[in-house]
Design goal:
The protein is of the alpha/beta class. The chain is built from ten helices and seven strands. It has a five-stranded parallel β-sheet with strand order 4-5-6-3-7, with helices on both faces. Strands 1-2 form a two-stranded antiparallel ribbon.
Amino acid sequence: MSCERCRDTGFEIVEREGREFAQPCACRRAAAGVRADFVSACRIPPRYEECTFANFEGFTPSLRNALERCMLYCNDYPHLGSTHEGLGLLFTGTNGIGKTHLAVAVLRELWTRKGVRGQFWDFHELTREIRDSYNPETRTTELQVLEPVVRADVLLLDDLGAWKMTDWINDTLFHIMNSRYMAKRATLITTNFEDADRTTAVKAESDYFERKRKGEAAAPPQREFLLERTGLAVRSRLMEMCVVIKVSGTDYREARQTSNQARTGGAVKS
């Protein structure tokens, strides 16, 4: 039990004019304040502001393994069990399986326990902000956009590769990654694209058609990989500065919804 006043219920009983009332405990108010500070300081979108290790549901062995590795990472930060400062995490896997939840939970843990300065950026939003800074009518310069991104102790870059790379976007991304790499600053990255070479891709496609020929259930192989979406220079830098955590399984959001409905008898829908 962490709070003796409310016995971890979140509410304490107070007496006013001879009557007893329940009110939010000081520990709950303090936790709410910490959460609000984290969301504001690290630019966490409302969709992800409640993401923690505690409420991440590991429905598959892959998800449980990913959760354990993230928790170990936070314990060992910034060294990750070695002398390699600034090592980050690259979460790969299909859409909707909990990559961003885990990445935000890592950032939250590091912000809370180790006092890191963090920044959350959706990759498309970041490139748009930088592009808009070139508009003479805006008051924001490219430097003002990039400086906190490059200088944050931990950067969370969400949905890398969701948009096709132009030469300008590729150059900008390499500048960010290389600057952080040279400064030994950790970067957390999520992407829907697996990291695989062309030989692996060809074999996956061959296996898929062979299984279909035999009448077996098979998901179509991914046509594009991280290399195609980021370019060789960026991909190489990512492999140097991040540990890959491959997350696989059923759609995490659908699984959570099913779990919630089971607990509430189907009364809760989202």
